[in-house]
Amino acid sequence: MGVLDGKTAFVTGGTGGIGSAICARFEREGAEVIAADLTDHGGAGTFHHYNVTDEAGIIQTFEGLASRWDKLDILVNAAGIEIEETIENTTLEQWNRIFAINVTGMFLTSKYALPLLRNASGSKGGASVVNFGSYDGFIADPGLAAYCATKGAVHALTRAMACDHGPEGIRVNAICPGYVDTPMLQSFFEGDGSGGSGGNIDSLQKAVRDVHPMRTYGKPEDIANLVNWLASDEARYAAGQLWVIDGGLSAQVQQMKL
Fold first, then answer.
1. pLDDT in tens, 190-209
2. Cys-Cys with 120: which of 91, 97, 127, 145 at CB 3.0–4.6 Å?
3. How far is it, in rounded angstroms, from Cα 25 to Cα 58?
């Protein structure tokens, strides 16, 4: 018997590195899961083609869900992209795109999920929304200006949502990961921004591991474990918080410049 038995879950970015780990964990815990994303990688959950920047498509998705489910217990806003540039080298098109996906997409998905989330508010732990921020919303990696800006916005939006919808029985929290072994991290290592700059990937990976007090970076399952707890009834009193999970990276006084 799983801790999410009888619960329904909708996960944006559900076929990505972290999203797929979340969907797999939710399924193991007994939830019925929809993995909402642009492409199907054949992971856990029922795949649903989903574009977080398409308001009409989002409305249609949740109208369809309302005919299938009478409630939505768990919403995870995990869809996101990264741009490795300073503001000087970031185009307006890039800036608008990353905000459309990382912030506006979260706003739109949450907005149209609210009626179903309210229907779950009478359950033991209420409905749970988990947004994806980042430790980069508190401190900054070089060359990630627009990304850092979006994560700061996510943190503020999370607090506001928690205040507005807590009285309705909807808990809202944000996960703030550090370095996690995903395709996005590998792209960072290989990129021209604050990651690879054409350097040796093995040496860069070692440098990233060594800058952490735990001397390692995270795995998608590490993040899924925390998301699973926040989605469960055990976290019924957890709301409006930014949960940093970064192997102690941001606890240090000074960090290595990569």
1. 665 445 555 555 666 777 77
2. 127
3. 25
